[in-house]
């Protein structure tokens, strides 16, 4: 898999440097004249500039003042100027990540078990049932003499439930109840869907869906529509082996799953690209390359601003 484009490209870094400086000083005539010289010096400068402004707009930022009037031009940015760009990019990425975190509907502080980005962990519950937590996952446990209840607050988990006919085991995810007596199954929660896949035994999902081994259901959180499909039992919870296995899901949903493995922010503002379908097996240990492979068939690219900020768009 290829790495995100522009990584370690000095011309790309120069274009970003100009972008940030012109945005900070939009009325500086001398700066704009120097920029015009740089832009005309090399066709690659103009190409990098077009991509930089496109990335800026993809992030929802306002284009630099008079950006549409700048013509192609030349002056190589010095190493010190390029170094000045990196803190600016880092500040931008940090601010974006902080805004996302503050706006996110996160409840992990209230949960009993939580994993960090890139971490998976197995916990054993009071009845001997085992739960393997995927990256960036939060689980709350509420056992009492009459029932075994857990709540998946975020992320994904694989459950191996100890049989107990007198106390059913229930997983609640985004208002959807998954009930079993003793079985092995996977529950995943994204911003768009709840997914349940059964490896062993039988699982009741909601009031109307009973799943057997090798069956799965994907439920749209917005509409409540349930889509039932088959799945190889070996592919269930493949994330435990560092793999993302998807079959006919939207690009947006696949990106949602990969966000839990990236220590930073992934921006995808193209609704048409997000709606495209994707099928494949991707490496969770390298989210940036996985994203590039997911987007490539649809003409999409991954632009790395910093190691913590990735912009997804069509080239």
TrEMBL record:
Pfam families in the record: DUF4880 (PF16220), FecR (PF04773)
InterPro entries, per the entry: FecR (IPR006860), FecR_N (IPR032623), Ferrdict_sens_TM (IPR012373)
Gene3D superfamilies: 2.60.120.1440
Alphabetic keyword roster: Membrane, Transmembrane, Transmembrane helix
Domain named FecR N-terminal: residues: 13-52
Coiled coil (residue ranges): none
One example GO MF annotation: sigma factor antagonist activity
Record-annotated FecR protein domain positions: 113-204
Transmembrane segments: 85-104
Protein name per Swiss-Prot or TrEMBL: Transmembrane sensor
Native source species: Oceanibaculum indicum
């Amino acid at each position: 898999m290829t790495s995100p484009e522009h990584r370690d490209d000095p011309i790309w870094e120069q274009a970003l440097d100009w972008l940030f400086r012109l945005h900070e000083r939009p009325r500086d005539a001398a700066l704009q004249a120097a920029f015009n010289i740089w832009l005309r010096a090399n066709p690659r400068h103009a190409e990098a500039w077009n991509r930089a402004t496109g990335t800026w707009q993809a992030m929802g930022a306002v284009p630099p003042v008079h950006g549409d009037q700048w013509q192609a031009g030349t002056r190589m940015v010095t190493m010190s100027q390029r170094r000045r760009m990196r803190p600016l990019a880092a500040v931008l990425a940090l601010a974006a990540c902080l805004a996302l975190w503050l706006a996110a509907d996160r409840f992990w502080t209230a949960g009993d078990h939580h994993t960090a980005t890139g971490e998976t962990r197995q916990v054993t519950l009071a009845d001997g049932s085992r739960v393997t937590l995927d990256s960036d996952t939060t689980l709350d446990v509420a056992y009492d003499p009459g029932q075994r209840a857990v709540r998946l607050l975020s992320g994904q988990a694989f459950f191996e439930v100890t049989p107990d006919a007198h106390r059913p085991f229930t997983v609640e995810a985004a208002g959807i109840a998954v009930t079993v007596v003793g079985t092995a199954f996977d529950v995943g929660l994204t911003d768009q869907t709840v997914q349940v896949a059964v490896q062993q035994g039988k699982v009741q999902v909601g009031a109307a869906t009973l799943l057997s081994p090798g069956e799965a259901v994907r439920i749209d959180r917005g509409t409540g529509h349930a889509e039932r499909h088959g799945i190889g039992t070996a592919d269930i919870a493949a994330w435990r082996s560092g793999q993302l296995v998807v079959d006919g899901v939207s690009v947006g949903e696949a990106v949602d799953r990969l966000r839990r493995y990236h220590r930073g922010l992934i921006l995808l503002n193209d609704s048409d690209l997000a709606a495209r379908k994707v099928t494949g097996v991707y490496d969770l240990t390298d989210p940036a390359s996985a994203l590039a492979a997911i987007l490539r068939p649809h003409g999409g690219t991954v632009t790395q601003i910093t190691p913590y900020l990735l912009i997804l768009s069509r080239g």
